[in-house]
Amino acid sequence: MAVADLTEAQARQELARLAGTLAAANTAYHRDDDPDISDAEYDAFKHRNAEIEARFPALKRKDSPSEQVGGAVAEGFGKIQHAVRMLSLGNAFDDADVADFDQRIRKYLGLAGGAPLTYTAEPKIDGLSLSLRYEGGALVQAATRGDGSVGENVTANARTIANIPTQLNGAPDVLEVRGEVYMSHADFAALNTRQAAAEQKTFANPRNAAAGSLRQLDAQITKSRPLRFFAYAWGELSAPLADTQSGAISRLAALGFATNPLTKTCASPQALIAHYRDIEEQRAGLGYDIDGVVYKVDDLALQSRLGFRSTTPRWAIAHKFPAELAWTVLEAIDIQVGRTGALSPVARLRPVTVGGVVVSNATLHNEDYIAGRDGNGAPIREGRDVRVGDWVQIYRAGDVIPKIKDVDIARRPADAVPYAFPQICPECQSDAIREEGDAIRRCSGGIICPAQAVEKLKHFVSRAAFDIEGLGAKQVEQFYTDGWIATPADIFTLRARFGVGMQQLKNREGWGDKSAGNLFDAIDEKRTIPLARLIFSLGIRHVGESGAALLANHYGSWAGFEVAMTRATVGKGAAWEDLISIDGVGAVMAGSVITTFQQDAERASIDQLVAQLDVQDTEQRVTDSPVAGKTVVFTGTLEQMTRAEAKARAEALGAKVLGSVSAKTDILVAGPGAGSKAKKATDLGIKTMDEASWLALIDTA
Ligand code: IVH
Q1: Quick check: is 107 catalytic?
Q2: Between 20 and 30 A from 86 (CA), which of 221, 493, 510, 673?
Q3: Residue 125 gets which letter from DSSP?
Q4: How far apart are CA 353 and CA 219, in angstroms?
Q5: What is the dihedral of CA 407, 412, 415, 421, to 10 degrees?
Q6: Cα(681)–Cα(515) distance, rounded to whole angstroms?
Q7: What confidence tier does 43 reach under pLDDT thresholds 50, 70, 90?
């Protein structure tokens, strides 16, 4: 369905579904280097997600896939747990997104349109982020972002960067300074010249050069590379730096850090946009790469009230510069089949440089996109279809997979024919079916489709799932081809089937006595598995890592989950209601889980798997808060915070916030004007308190 036609409820559901799918895909891609869906499928999902979020910014989820923090810690560097998580930023692509950002913040804080609200605006440096920890004024540690929680220890390397002070005067005892490591255009060009002369690897762009230079195991190499640092944020602090973002940045500058001279405070979204245009004009002459402008709420007390979604602050956003474009020839269209059976068209292109990067593949999203229409038959590209042989315009924004934006009909070869999207799966020849309302055509073969079966197995062993050492995507593919494993349960019977002689495995190239034995041990080690991981591993459509965690938290044990899913019927009944009452679980995800449990082959495969495992119950999150596990209802007018803020804070402390009072309610927070809910709570004997008492209660947390 076209985004323009989605109702708010449909949009919310679809965003929930996309978040699940993309979270899993992100982990597989970034952390495991082991994508579980095709690039094109990934991009089609991401594109759709961005479009829906652009139209319904207020529905953007806590776990929005557009804001996943990618990357993971590489082997070779020590690991550092960040005292305060290193986050990513949400994106704005146009003026309307900036206005929405301002509106969202005002709404969250309960600020009227005219009330003053100041922001800072500064260039978004295209480098890599670094966290510097000072204790007693001395630089003691430097870490890359990694996955946001755990980064790489690059202390020795950071010490070699000329404009990073190693000793501070007058700094708080503990100070973590965060900012961007980058390389100037001139230094980048000179480095590449030196590298080429020495027949060493050259870099595609300054950002890669900066990353490659900082992440050197030998700090002497880093030292020989001209890196620089801009400070723009902080992590743990033993004392505040200032009351405002701008004040804190001035303080960092006074302590000796380079801060960006184009940082400015702005009193309105219009002023932000004016500064954006100004920076955009200066961009080419800056001498270093920037890819947008970052806006932040200036008042730090407001920043703290606004808090964070899962990976991004509510109080900041990156307003990106428009994407880069280039024309080339579409040489072929390939179809990739993903884990969920999605047939994803991939454009194979005559290689072309787009913004400094050579592009030879792009996503074509789905069959409608190729045909020049959206899901409802409305024209896109004014109805121009895309054909093999066409000249197509490639669009690349940041790191995302390139897309095809337009086609030049005037240059179309006379013999070009409309693309016939396959109606059968190219991998297993089953019918490829497109359901009503779904933009994607899917192979109906299920696990008989080798592509789906293998992708499912790859997902099963991926890092966020079973993560079995020695059993990665490559091995799984090999074992599947050899007929050794067809479903996840088969992995756990490998030792019993092959373990005694281990002949088959040992005879394989790359396997010996030791590695085969290690593999079986690694498999046995994973027989004990936390519930959330197990649920995620099942590869149920729409259930990503965060969805699996929500389900595991709610049901607590495999038995509880399994019984509920077996009893549940899509769309009705108590088990269904209970499932969709979970905040973050929409009807689409719920329907998908239940349907999976109802399919005989799937169900048998799940049962066989679980019979091999010892599934660990879920420990309840945030157990040390006075409201953890409590069901809370807010009613009446809240005076110190908006509903959204009240709900977000309560949930962050482990409470469940519902809209109506029932016997299961633990606390009713009633502001002035509370009506029937307060009465019902009194009748049911439910603890009722006013906003001030509630705040006092959670402040002890
Ligand atoms: S603020 C909690 N300011 O962009 C927010 N980030 O896409 C912390 N970046 O991870 C980030 N210039 O690596 C901020 N002026 C700037 C930035 C900036 C570049 C990077 C940073 C961040 C990424 C998010």
Answers
A1: no
A2: 221
A3: E
A4: 33
A5: 0
A6: 63
A7: low
> Taking the CB of residue 356, how many other CB atoms lie within 10 A of it?
13
Q: CA torsion 352→361→292→290, rounded to 10°?
A: -50
Provide the Cα torsion 186, 190, 191, 196; round to 10°. Answer: 140
- What would the pLDDT profile of 326-369 be if each residue is shown by its tens digit? 899 999 999 999 998 999 999 999 988 887 677 889 999 999 99
Residues with CB under 6 A from ligand 1: 87-89, 122, 124-125, 129, 180, 232-233, 294, 313, 316, 318
List the domains of the chain with CATH numbers: 3-67 (1.10.287.610), 79-320 (3.30.470.30), 325-411 (2.40.50.140), 446-526 (1.10.150.20), 530-616 (1.10.150.20), 631-698 (3.40.50.10190)
368 sits in which H/E element = helix 367-371
Spatial separation of the C-alpha atoms in residues 390 and 485, rounded to whole Å = 42
Q: Which of 60, 79, 107, 124 does the annotation list as catalytic?
A: 124
| Ligand 1 pocket, mutate which of 262, 294, 308, 315 (most atoms under 8 A from CB) | 294
Distance of alpha carbon 442 from alpha carbon 459, whole angstroms = 18
Burial class (CB in 10 A: 0-12, 13-18, 19+), 392: buried
Ligand 1 geometric centre to CA of 83 (Å): 17
**Does this model's pTM top 0.85?**
no
Mutate to test the pocket of ligand 1, among 30, 69, 180 (most ligand atoms within 8 A of CB): 180
Alpha carbon nearest to ligand 1 atom 2, residue = 87
Instruction: Assign 3-state DSSP to the chain and report helix, strand, coil percentages, each to 5.
Output: 40, 20, 40
For 646-669, the pLDDT digits (tens) are 888 888 788 888 888 888 899 999
**Token reading at 12:** 């919310």
Token pair in block for residue 232:
């723009």
d(CA 340, CA 541): 6
* Integer Cα distance of 548 and 20 in angstroms: 8
Query: Looking at the predicted structure, is the pLDDT value of residue 34 above 80?
Result: no
